[in-house]
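Protein chain data
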Amino acid sequence: MRWLQGFVLSASLLACHPAASQPHTSLTMGMSQFPPDMHPFITSTSIKDTILGAALRPVVGFTAEGRVICLLCTEVPSLANGLAKIVDRPDGTKGMEVDYILRDDLAWGDGVPVTAADVAFAFKVNAMFNPPLVVESATAIDAHRVRYVLKSVVYDFDRQANTPIPEHIEAPILASAKDAVDYGQKSAFNHAPETPGLWDGPYRIAEFKPNDQVTLLPNPGWKGHAPYFQKITMRLIENTSALQANLLAGDVDILATGNLGITLDQIISVAKSQAAKFDVDFIPSVTSYEHLAVQLNNKLLADKRVRQAMAMGIDKATIVARVFDNRFQVAGSFKHPSQFGWHDGTKVLPYDPKAAKALLAEAGFKPGPDGILLSPDGTRFSIDLVTTAGNRTRELVEQVLQTEMKAIGIDIVIKNEPARVMFGETLRKRGFTGLVEFQNDSPIDYVPLIYFQSGYIPRPENNFSGNNYSFWANPDMDAALNAARAELDPQKRLALWKPILDLYADELPEIPLYFPASGILTPKWMTGMVDRTRFGINTLWVENWHAK
């Protein structure tokens, strides 16, 4: 009966591995976060960018070296090609006019052409949530040309175009809304994201289940390189251990990258134990950094000496070595030393618990009966720390931070929240009282106005849309950021980075921790997920993903 046993065994193997004989035409991505909303301009989260990257294309993107490239336009504006020019303004200052010319083969998912009017309308909507500091207006000159008028000369004029949104769908909703908040709630992006006409990318959202999953289907309006997969499902699995289990079980094929998927130690483990099943690429991050946003309105944290002491009380090198297998890099600032703008003389605080205690004493803090410091007015130094619940690595880092802060007399109380709550409410409306741990992701060669300029502090008047979550308002930093952005000459702009880095190092409105690395696991049957020639969320190039 051996032949029968062999037949049964072979049949069992085939039943367990049906994919071996079937083409891979669909793809399931697992993700540990879910966006708080789907409107491209209301909140800023990496998981929303990951979804939108496949369905809503920006006008321009970046190469890995930071060069601006066209995605929806025909040519990047420059002074040399005449699409950008410096102009005299009525008040005697210098401004700019920048024209973007859209390709003539663009269409929304309902077949309506994408036009310059959609880009100009996007500027109008975006201004409601992110009041522009430089751009004065955006006007459709004709069906394909949109002109941006800038109130000043800025080096990044070539990337000012707003991601288009469909005027034919959103304009009536905006016209009927009482205010920006009412519009945000009624917007089709949030109220009916399955509307085909919202999407101009390779895919459209065909099904949207809040806090569960998003289903993407090929967009019939897309005239670019045809996407290979006929369906992509993005599933929420908030716990990273459960997400790893789903990957190993084959219930998900790939993972969202960075902090949106599983943790680095899990990726390393999978890469070692499942080498026959997955390829792994480790891509160091030089523009993203993990940090602690500090609530500067908390009296315990208002003195910069306290923040400096906290930074010196954290053994970042040991965290990077033991938690991240030395694949991450210690961050002494928000700027990576390899990037444009870094100065070797930039102050980086060392790990020095003794000096940290001395700084705290200098700031008037004294040990209480339980060893926790008391402020000059007698308040016990106890603060909350929030991060994304279910992220195993962040929770481990929190425990290390809790222990190290206690060693210098600071009590850390961990109060984690689901990512959608933390990013949608706690950070956006500045509802935290102490510290929040998360990652900032910036374009290459980016002057960080949205993070550190006072105009980007989330407030009711800008519908809580700014990214200056620490509420840092420093006139010198505002001036330094504006000066760097206004300089067109790269070498002169390089010198203007020094005061930005020095002010950050002195004031520490946030506490930098480390520069992460993205570990990307790709099943052996798939290719195209990793594109080392281009910068940004990898779904921006999703049409290049395919089965081998």
